Structures are given as structure tokens and as C-alpha cells.
Amino acid sequence: MLVLAGLTGDEMGRYDVYWWDGSSVDMQHLGDITEDAHADEEHKPEGILPLDVSPEGLRVLILSDGKDAKEGEPRPVVVRVPNLR
């Protein structure tokens, strides 16, 4: 399961992607997507959709919410591929 984590409300900060296997207490950190998702006061990442795996990593689609985020302003972002032990 992919987890998109970040601040709520009007606060600004990091947005990260994690992998959770559904049963362990720990999650794998796959990457900080703040810059690649163009996250700022007007574009807050809210949704994530896995697209594919390439030599560069796991490509996900990030959808944002906010005053200037038109139509969810989808952006593909590459993060580390999770270790599926």
C-alpha cells in the first residue's frame, strides 16, 4: 500500500511517500516528493496512484488540492521502488 504523508491545513512542509505491507508496524520511506510535486501554499498533494516501475524507480501520479491546483494538477513523480521482502 502506498501512503502519501504530509501536513494538513494551511501549514507548509514536506510531503513523503511510504510503502506499507499491510501487517508490519514499520513503513518503508520511498522519497520526499515536495519539490517534484511542486507542493506549496496553493498546491497540496492529496492523492497518489501507482503508474509503473522503470529503471529510474516507481513512477506515481500525484494529485493536488488547493486554490491554484486546476483539475487536481496531476504530476508524475519517481520514488524508490519498495523492497518487497
Structural features:
single chain, mainly beta, 3-stranded antiparallel beta sheet
- Distinct helical segment count: 0
Strand fraction equals: over 45%
Shape: globular
Helix content: under 10%
Give me the Rg, rounded.
13 Å
**What class do helices, strands and sheet pairing give?**
mainly beta
- Helix-strand sequence: EEEEEE
Distance between the termini: 14 Å
This entry's quaternary arrangement is single chain
Number of strands: 6
User: What's the rounded overall pLDDT mean?
Assistant: 89
Major sheet attributes: 3 strands, antiparallel
> Spans of 5+ residues with little confidence (pLDDT < 50)?
none
Total domains: 1
Strand order of the biggest β-sheet: 1-2-3
Protein architecture, described:
With 85 residues, the chain is an all-beta fold. The chain has one domain (2-79). It is 0% helix and 47% strand. It contains no helices and six strands. It has strands at residues 2-6, 15-19, 28-32, 44-54, 57-65, 75-79. The strands form two sheets. The protein has a three-stranded antiparallel sheet, with no helix packed on it. It is globular. The model has no long low-confidence stretch (mean pLDDT 89).
Present the secondary structure layout.
Elements: E1 2-6, E2 15-19, E3 28-32, E4 44-54, E5 57-65, E6 75-79
Antiparallel strand pairs: 1-2, 2-3, 4-5, 5-6
Short structural summary:
By secondary structure, the chain is mostly beta strands.
